[in-house]
Amino acid sequence: MRLSSNPSVIRRMIKVEQAVKEAEIKLAPPAARSNGRIHFATSGTRLPFYEATPYIPLLRVIDELRLPSKLHFADLGSGLGMACFAAATYFARVTGFEIDPRLHAEAERIRQAEKVEGISFLNQDFMAANLQDFNVLYLFRPFTEYFEFRAGQKLNETKPGTVVISYVFTNHLLFNVRTFRQIYPVSSSSSLPNHDFFAFERI
Questions:
Q1: Statement: residue 190 has pLDDT above 50
Q2: 137: Cβ–Cβ under 8 A, 6 or more apart, which residues?
């Protein structure tokens, strides 16, 4: 059964989502809510920005890619961990990099409270990490200060075969056409693609 329609996966994610929303309310400044979602600036050297990943579309992308579950997934800017919690319903190993210590601490608290195994939340900048240790990377959109150019240089350090899932990012500065090929969405996809999500493979 596909992740995005598996009742046990969805029940688990609904519980995690509630815990994440409670943490958002605790951490978010006044006026951080817009159109029913919370987003706010966080601490870090690149003026990062927090917003939770919509987990059902991410699960659909994981369904479509049909990657081996033994792969190591990393979220590059994991915030309160929503993408990591979703990925952990499929991948054996999940790592979240979060530069803001408050978000990192809350994500780890939620992980422990919900007894989610297989996730390591790290309070560090992924730009200083060795990304060759991972097979699947995830990037959410709210970054600033020439992020696409700087992160694009970092992604070029990944090993061939690494899959990068992005939310909104399709910029050639991030995915150099000489080093990445787009693998999602594709015209042969068995279901309607979510055009907010894209996936690229390091060649």
A1: no
A2: 73, 74, 75, 76, 131, 155, 158, 162, 163, 164, 165
